[in-house]
Specification:
binds MU-OXO-diiron; mainly alpha; 172 residues; Ferritin
């Protein structure tokens, strides 16, 4: 593989693992404030992010290259409110989308069509990732109005129903 491409994928593995770490931290925080439904949702999100990292990890191995795992920073551990946490998450996902787009640009630049194809999965996934975060954020903005806590607990109950369903399959 082209070195620039490989370095960028190794860097992305780190960011996917950081995302996993970030959402696990959010899950921990939601648990600490009694919102177990939100905690469940983020715990599953953390698992999905690890799957994203492993999809890239397996791809690098599949191409006969070496994965270079990098240091992962500690994530924040608390937020002002669920709304602020989801604002943070939405902004984070937009950053991840920009990183994926950058990977696609590199794949085009170095004419690595196999990697370009693999990355299309991430391009589509990011549309869903941003939509998930934005949809919940919009609901939370309603909560910050007069109806307040009752709606918050309804959202919490809703988020408690999320179940983990692996969306990533290893390379053939
Ligand atoms: Fe792996 Fe949420 O992007």
């Amino acid at each position: 593989m082209n070195e620039k491409m490989l370095d960028a994928i190794n860097e992305q593995i780190k960011w996917e693992l950081y995302s996993s770490y970030l959402y696990l931290s959010m899950s921990t925080w939601y648990n600490s404030i009694g919102l177990q439904g939100f905690a469940n949702w983020e715990r599953i999100q953390a698992k999905e992010e690890r799957d994203h990292a492993m999809k890239l990890y397996d791809y690098v191995l599949f191409r006969g290259e070496n994965v270079e795992l990098q240091s992962i920073d500690a994530p924040p551990s608390s937020w002002e409110s669920p709304e602020k946490a989801f604002e943070f998450q939405y902004a984070h996902e937009q950053e991840v989308t920009a990183m994926i787009n950058n990977l696609v640009e590199i794949a085009l630049e170095v004419r690595d069509h196999a990697t370009y194809n693999m990355l299309q999965w991430f391009v589509n996934e990011q549309v869903e990732e941003e939509d998930n975060a934005r949809t919940i954020l919009e609901k939370l903005k309603v909560v910050s109005g007069e109806t307040g806590k009752g709606v918050l607990f309804m959202i919490d109950r809703d988020l408690s129903t999320r179940v983990y369903a692996p969306s990533v399959t290893p390379p053939a």
